[in-house]
Amino acid sequence: xxxxxxxxxxxxxxxxxxxxxxxxxxxxxxxxxxxxxxxxxxxxxxxxxxxxxxxxxxxxxxxxxxxxxxxxxxxxxxxxxxxxxxxxxxxxxxxxxxxxxxxxxxxxxxxxxxxxxxxxxxxxxxxxxxxxxxxxxxxxxxxxxxxxxxxxxxxxxxxxxxxxxxxxxxxxxxxxxxxxxxxxxxxxxxxxxxxxxxxxxxxxxxxxxxxxxxxxxxxxxxxxxxxxxxxxxxxxxxxxxxxxxxxxxxxxxxxxxxxxxxxxxxxxxxxxxxxxxxxxxxxxxxxxxxxxxxxxxxxxxxxxxxxxxxxxxxxxxxxxxxxxxxxxxxxxxxxxxxxxxxxxxxxxxxxxxxxxxxxxxxxxxxxxxxxxxxxxxxxxxxxxxxxxxxxxxxxxxxxxxxxxxxxxxxxxxxxxxxxxxxxxxxxxxxxxxxxxxxxxxxxxxxxxxxxxxxxxx
Amino acid sequence: xxxxxxxxxxxxxxxxxxxxxxxxxxxxxxxxxxxxxxxxxxxxxxxxxxxxxxxxxxxxxxxxxxxxxxxxxxxxxxxxxxxxxxxxxxxxxxxxxxxxxxxxxxxxxxxxxxxxxxxxxxxxxxxxxxxxxxxxxxxxxxxxxxxxxxxxxxxxxxxxxxxxxxxxxxxxxxxxxxxxxxxxxxxxxxxxxxxxxxxxxxxxxxxxxxxxxxxxxxxxxxxxxxxxxxxxxxxxxxxxxxxxxxxxxxxxxxxxxxxxxxxxxxxxxxxxxxxxxxxxxxxxxxxxxxxxxxxxxxxxxxxxxxxxxxxxxxxxxxxxxxxxxxxxxxxxxxxxxxxxxxxxxxxxxxxxxxxxxxxxxxxxxxxxxxxxxxxxxxxxxxxxxxxxxxxxxxxxxxxxxxxxxxxxxxxxxxxxxxxxxxxxxxxxxxxxxxxxxxxxxxxxxxxxxxxxxxxxx
Lengths: 457, 457
Known about the structure:
Chain A is mostly helical. Helices cover 65% and strands 6% of the residues of chain A. Chains A, B: Pfam families: CBS, MgtE, MgtE_N.
């Protein structure tokens, strides 16, 4: 008999939100508690994200800190920040006590600096306080920023029986055990064990006899995205973190890595679409404008650059004014090819699956551009000449310009991200409006230069 | 003392590849084996991906099937397919014997149909053969296509001691235990237990007394991406899969879900960039052309559409020929705004974080467009009039057109993905060249219509 409690078919309906709002308004605490009791904390977080600030603060204060700590972790960051502003330092500290060190440090890091110290001083559990303070010192984009202090470790000198006894104590603080780390007496990481190995082993065995001496680990300063790549590549569900002396500091679990992967993918996607990182559809118009306007300005300057180029050639072309009709075709093609080329390179760099020399890759892109360009040019030539009645020589000009523009756009789209990556700059910035704009301008310039050469105006 | 074996600092160097090639050529089997022994199977797969087909087949045949099965799983799909074509059905079956059922089924599913039956009939382990055949029946994009048959399950009537005894046997086949599933005598899933709970419990307790009655599960026909969302939302590391009668069929682990998330993100990214799914930078020019040309053709037809519009107005505009210079500006802006709006909606839909009514969202986008449009229009007006010396009335026309085009592009970019999603079509197709092209054409049309109205030509 499966209870409803963690039913995965949870659906956030307007009725449910209205029901919660009504219970809050009428201060019907008992019924509210018993209603929310039936939901998973991630679901309650979704409900609270829909409520007014006052209402969600009310609900947070009503429920046990054991539940609300988990709810806060799952809430939208902006909403959580607002809720926390309405809680006292002592109330926040109570929530923090319930959280694992990594989540606790994440929440504290979001607070204004003066509140951080106040909240930390209100944490009663000394050990927890010390561990959180340690974690706060690490950059959030490093292994140290991802790791939790909660882990199960054993000394190589222990027996299996003694080990199981002590693990029973340690494991109470650890949500999921994954691996058991084996350390020497100086706390240096020397190997690992799985709970399974321990259960299968005989009680009187020494850990030193049964532990596995190969263990993957990362350094506390390693980049978070590198940690994600390592855990994915080697299919790890947890990885220990050590300092420069190989001392065991913490561990990172796969669920945190899933978030890193998702965030990285989201950020690259937004960059490619010309949106500065970290906005959501539900953010305010001001925040969305801040994220979108800079990229539109880049596009605008590109457009004005193109206007100057056209102006320049406009006076000269005389009878060939029809050339101007094909500017959008040239521009769209240059932009599309540039985005395609850069996206495939950025993705290859992100997945670490790109190999070979830059020259070989440019040659390949040029060839690819030639193939695509020939196809597009032929079709465009036939349509413009036979369907639109464009003069033969103009159609030829457009065709040759298309081929040149495609090859050029493909090469720019390939070169820029590789170049940025080699310089240590995130290649994803070179996608989207950035590449489209530069290709637009170059494309139009090439078009008119070719036209001038062929048509001799 | 950490051994080098699973050193995470593995780097694929040209020297290493050359060394392996040399050992293969000289048939120096012993040294080759002892060299590769030191690497993780995921690293060996990377090396093999760099070798010629003959060389990688040679290495695969040289090593034990225990290692090579894992290597094959990690290899690039195209390369793996080629290697498998060079192995006999019996050799493939030997690899399959070493793999978990989910990986085994994935590999068999890649084979041509006539070989599938041949390979399956060569699998000696009857149970394994039966389980793999069952898994092959499920669509790869469903929970059934992701799940493995390997899991640890216990009956509610067992005692803790008996349970531990039997788990020792079951667990040998299971790489990672995660959860222990509790079933009734009809194999219906009724709850779960963690290894930790079992270790902490007293030996004489009955499972029925200690198991947790709430358990998340998915149905075998559920969509793979939905399973990924559920596991992420509820931070699950494994989830059981049941049939319509609640019978336990298998389980899905988080490492498979990481792949689903990554693939989904990659696909959306490629769609936004105008590349059909599933290509990599290292694919052949033919494959890359097939993935890229269709989108370029869409862009080309858009460009030709724009050319017709310009042709139509060209004859009429007389003195206002300068309007044509600003076509690229209008087009770039329309394209950029459209991509921004659609990307943010597609991402919201993918993360399931989009709420509210379609009308409210369109209104918001219109407002946002107005804010961005006013900013862009003012700057463009100042630059064109004072810097370029464009006539005042033309600059005003361009400014008004920019505002209108931005608002329109934002609304189209918002509406189309939501509309597609409601129709059950993947909204990601509406990003990239698709949205850019339609916005280009509409944008240019709006521009000339507004110009005609204001300038009265």
